Automatic annotation (TrEMBL):
GO biological process: heme biosynthetic process
Listed GO MF terms: FMN binding; menaquinone-dependent protoporphyrinogen oxidase activity
The name this protein goes by in its record: Protoporphyrinogen oxidase
Domain Flavodoxin intervals: 4-150
PANTHER family: PROTOPORPHYRINOGEN IX DEHYDROGENASE [MENAQUINONE], PROTOPORPHYRINOGEN IX DEHYDROGENASE [QUINONE]
One Pfam assignment: Flavodoxin_5
InterPro entries: Flavodoxin_dom, Flavoprotein-like_sf, Protoporphyrinogen_IX_DH
Length: 178
């Protein structure tokens, strides 16, 4: 399959996730184009069989640039097999209230962009104290402590389940008919 992977990221974890998926899909024999949404122009849907779109959650919303990309390309995307990955800390663990909040954020993305993904998956992200400014570090320390999350106050603590992502990529791409 020819697969587009387009992402938005603020601190870099979603980029890392998308690079990981790209490597996995290329190894499985697919051709992949990896794009940051801010570098992407209008999509030529005829160039792809499938697309993975990924964004991360900050203060209960995904990046406006991601919504703009999905909106501008909603028609092209509607003709492709698609997977939406929403990266967050709420996806760490299986708290039903957090999940309900994440589903609302995903629903808001759909409502604002007019693009309905074929499939949506919540992916646990990371705490990246090496990428935060003073204010973000202060807020995130409080959130991490409130949620009993282990963290490295000077570095990155990843919660992403790479094995689960690998399985998702294999299953999603393996089940595609193109
Ligand atoms: C300022 C800030 C606000 C955040 N707000 C939320 C939030 O509302 N809900 C949530 O689940 N995660 C939230 N997160 C966690 C991010 O979604 C997580 O760190 C993710 O890995 C970021 O991905 P990125 O590095 O690709 O931007 C927040 C992180 C930061 C730094």
């Amino acid at each position: 399959m020819r697969i587009l992977i387009a992402y938005a990221t603020t601190e870099g974890q979603t980029r890392k996730i998308c690079r990981f998926l790209s490597d996995r899909l290329v190894d499985a024999g697919h051709s992949v184009e990896l794009l940051h949404v801010e570098d992407a122009g209008p999509l030529d849907a005829a160039r792809f069989d499938a697309a993975i779109l990924a964004a991360s959650v900050h203060a209960w919303h995904v990046q406006p640039a991601f919504i703009a990309f999905a909106k501008a390309n909603a028609t092209a995307l509607a003709g492709l097999r698609t997977l939406y990955l929403q990266v967050s800390l709420g996806a760490v663990g299986n708290d039903p209230e957090e999940r309900a909040d994440l589903d609302k954020i995903a629903a808001e993305m759909v409502e604002k962009s007019g693009w309905t993904p074929g499939r949506t998956a919540h992916v646990a992200g990371a705490l990246r104290f090496d990428a935060y400014d003073f204010l973000k570090a202060w807020v995130m320390r409080r959130i991490a402590r409130d949620h009993d999350m282990p963290f490295d106050p000077k570095g990155t603590t990843e919660f992403t389940d790479w094995a689960a992502l690998e399985a998702l990529a294999d299953e999603w791409a393996g089940g595609a008919t193109g």
